Amino acid sequence: MRASVVSINVSTGGVPKRPVLFADVDQGGVAGDRHAHPDLHGGPRQAVLLITTEGIEELKAAGYPLYAGALGENITTAGLDRRAIRLGQRYRLGEVIVEITKVRRPCDQLAPYGEGIQKAVFDAEVKAGNTASPVWGLSGFYAAVVKPGTLRPGDAISLLEEAV
Question: What is the domain-level CATH number for residue 9?
Answer without folding.
Answer: 2.40.33.20
